[in-house]
Design brief:
Helix content is 42%, strand content 0%. The N and C termini lie far apart (71 Å). The longest helix is centred in the first third of the chain and has 16 residues. The protein is elongated, with a radius of gyration of 31 Å. By secondary structure, the chain is an all-alpha fold. α1 packs across α2. It has a domain of 52 residues.
Length: 124
């Protein structure tokens, strides 16, 4: 490529000031512990830019997040709190009765192991 020519660098931003403000808002929003979802970001930018031609589409959102090296973050719970009445419940004791489906499975396994010498079809 000749020295005076440059590769296509993409379109110029239509609203660079608003996009910088939006990036700052997202970072501030996250530092406060809130989740900034796709919908909230798109609504916020629509409020910032009062232009009917600007639609804040999903494609715009994806491009904006990619260009600003942002990802959609959501808080997740690593550990769930146990219920208060857990001590009253005996969830750690062994089961008294096995469920019927387990009993049927064991019975069919016993039948198959007994009939393993025979070449009969059981119809399963």
């Amino acid at each position: 490529m000749p020295q005076e020519k440059k590769a296509n660098r993409g379109e110029k931003l239509s609203f660079p000031r608003e996009e910088r403000e939006l990036k700052g808002w997202i970072c501030n929003h996250r530092q406060q512990g809130y989740v900034a979802t796709c919908g909230t970001i798109r609504m916020k930018v629509k409020q910032m830019i009062n232009n009917e031609l600007f639609r804040a589409s999903v494609g715009w959102y994806t491009h904006f997040m990619h260009c600003n090296k942002l990802v959609l973050q959501q808080k997740i719970k690593i550990c769930q709190r146990l219920p208060i009445d857990l001590k009253d419940k005996n969830i750690l004791t062994p089961m008294k009765k096995a469920p019927k489906c387990m009993m049927r499975h064991e019975q069919t396994q016993q039948m198959v192991s007994k009939d393993s010498g025979d070449d009969q079809f059981l119809g399963f």
